[in-house]
Write a structure and sequence with these properties.
The longest helix has 28 residues. This protein folds into two domains: about 55 residues, no CATH class; about 180 residues, P-loop containing nucleotide triphosphate hydrolases (Rossmann fold), CATH 3.40.50.300. The protein is α/β, with parallel strands linked by helices and about 250 residues long. The protein is built from twelve helices and seven strands.
């Protein structure tokens, strides 16, 4: 049995993985079947694994993803859709584009699975340790408007640029209000240096320009987003119809 006083000390230090590992190995240690140094290595490896998993869980929780259980490995290829392959998804799931501060835009008709796929990439980013945040574009607009109304624009940008990846879901469903366009440009200018955007939209790039009021600001915003982006243009069967007929909800 592991010494009670040692357990108390390790617990106070919040080394719960060490405690669990030593408890499971203590009899083997006393019987000289396991070297004590090897047991300590196993114990601290267990602690590292537990802490890493807690970090990942926290990143996924704080990302507020619409589909937090979406995973790239669960993407379905048995449907009539085009725009990506397993090789492409695996390459982008390595998150090199995030490390390089590139953007990723997922385009396609409603129901094709854009939001789910965006969440799958965002989850992979969390697994790789990237600080991520998910917004419906309408909610993001509201956030910017509130910052303007409260004269907190600089504070909001300071908070947002702490993220490595920001997901803006369903861009274009709501017209971008004129009063936030300059602020949105300021945000994109600042964020592009520090992080990556993942944007989903049912509208093609040709239609994005008309979602803004000021054509000059629209040019500046879209130039910064699109020209620094990779694009997935998905077409094919609606996943909502397929999921409904198969009683499936959580896979793409």
């Amino acid at each position: 049995m592991l010494n009670h006083r040692l357990v108390e000390l390790l617990t106070k230090l919040k080394l719960h993985g060490v405690v669990t590992s030593l408890k499971s190995n203590i009899d083997e240690i006393y019987a000289n079947r396991i070297n004590f140094e090897e047991a300590l290595i196993d114990a601290f490896n267990s602690e590292i694994l537990i802490r890493n998993q807690k970090t990942i869980d926290r990143l996924i929780r704080c990302a507020t993803l619409k589909y937090p259980h979406a995973r790239i490995e669960d993407v379905r290829f048995d449907t009539n859709r085009t725009g990506f392959t397993s090789q492409t998804l695996n390459r982008f799931s390595e998150c090199t584009w995030i490390r390089n501060h590139k953007n990723l835009n997922i385009l396609g008709p409603t129901g094709i699975g854009k939001t789910w796929l965006g969440c799958a990439f965002a989850t992979k980013a969390c697994l790789e340790g990237y600080k991520t945040k998910f917004f419906k574009y309408a909610d993001f607009i509201d956030l910017l408007e509130q910052a303007i109304d409260n004269s907190n624009e600089k504070l909001l940008i300071k908070k947002l640029i702490k993220f490595d990846l920001i997901v803006l879901d369903d861009f274009g469903l709501n017209h971008t209000p004129a009063k936030i366009e300059s602020f949105l440009l300021d945000f994109i200018d600042s964020f592009s240096i520090h992080g990556s955007l993942l944007i989903t939209s049912q509208f093609s790039y040709e239609l994005w320009h008309e979602k803004f009021n000021d054509p000059t600001i629209a040019d500046a915003i879209l130039d910064r987003i699109i020209h620094n982006s990779y694009t997935f243009e998905i077409s094919g069967d609606s996943m909502r119809k397929i999921s409904s007929s198969n009683n499936e909800i959580t896979t793409l």
